[in-house]
Amino acid sequence: MRNLATLGLAALLYGVTAWAVNPAFAGDMTADDVTAIKDARTGDMTKLVVHDAPKSRVEDAFADIDGKKMTLSDFGGKVIVLNFWATWCPPCRAEMPSIDRLSADMAGQDVTVLALSTDRGSIARVRSFFKDVGIKNLPVIQDKRSRVARSSAVIGLPVTLILDREGREIARLQGEAEWDSDAVKTILGQIINRTAPEG
User: Fold this and answer.
1) Cβ distance 163 to 93 under 8 Å?
2) pLDDT tens-digit profile of 126-143?
3) Which of 51, 137, 175, 185 is within CB 3.0–4.6 Å of 103 for a Cys-Cys bond?
4) Which residues, including other chains, have CB under 8 Å from residue 191's CB and lie 6 or more apart?
5) Spatial separation of the C-alpha atoms in residues 97 and 133, rounded to whole Å
6) Dist. CA 67–CA 60, nearest whole Å
7) Is the CB of residue 92 less than 8 Å from the CB of residue 157?
């Protein structure tokens, strides 16, 4: 009996610990939440595919401007807009200013906007592109070996993912879009509110 009681207590403590370490699970979206976000799509956002359940988290590393390794977990706790792009991709170049404006517009909210370059050359090329186009609100980051892109099943560019607070993909848009539109901000606002940790 003592062994059973000990096992029961251990299971209870494990469950409480797991909940404490992953508080955002309490904010997972319901089917009604997913439907509400789908219904909010207008304009370019009609191309946004909203998943009925989140995808697995991607843990592959990428590099910042100084070559330091990072993962998406470094941005945990916030909703992430993750754009995959390259300097040689005309649609990527066309939409980048709107992604930069979205980052500025969402400052101070529970959203991180990232534009992850898949260029295979030096990160100096990405930095030069940002300077030429006037990008001021996005960090210079690079997925030089496309590990994050492959793990995220990215085929073709640009592709933009929306990740929940656990870093799991909940929506995806293939192709170019205006990312600072009212529709985008409405959708992100819904996701922020509907995934907020309880308490």
Assistant:
1) no
2) 999 999 999 999 999 999
3) 137
4) 29, 37, 79, 162, 164, 170
5) 7
6) 15
7) yes
User: What is the rounded distance in angstroms from the CA atom of residue 133 to the CA atom of residue 100?
Assistant: 10
Residue type, 18: A
Whole-prediction pTM value? 0.85
In this structure, what DSSP letter does residue 78 have?
Answer: S
Mean pLDDT by 10 residues, the chain (199 residues): 38 33 55 94 97 95 96 92 97 97 96 97 95 96 97 97 96 98 96 84
CA distances to 75, 79, 89, 105, 165 from 194, rounded to whole Å, are 18, 11, 34, 20, 11
How far from 136 is each of 53, 104, 111, 147, CA to CA, in Å? 34, 9, 17, 26
pLDDT digits (tens, 9 = 90+) for 25-60: 445 889 999 999 999 999 999 999 999 999 999 999
**CA–CA separation, 86 vs 157, rounded Å?**
8
Q: Could you tell me what percent of the chain has a pLDDT over 70?
A: 86
Asked if 44 and 180 count as a contact pair (C-beta separation under 8 A), the reply is no
Determine whether 85 is exposed, middle or buried from the number of CB atoms within 10 Å of its CB (0-12, 13-18, 19+): buried
DSSP 45-58: GGGPEEPSSPPPPP
Cα 29 to Cα 12, 50, 127, 136, 139, distances in angstroms: 25, 11, 36, 32, 29
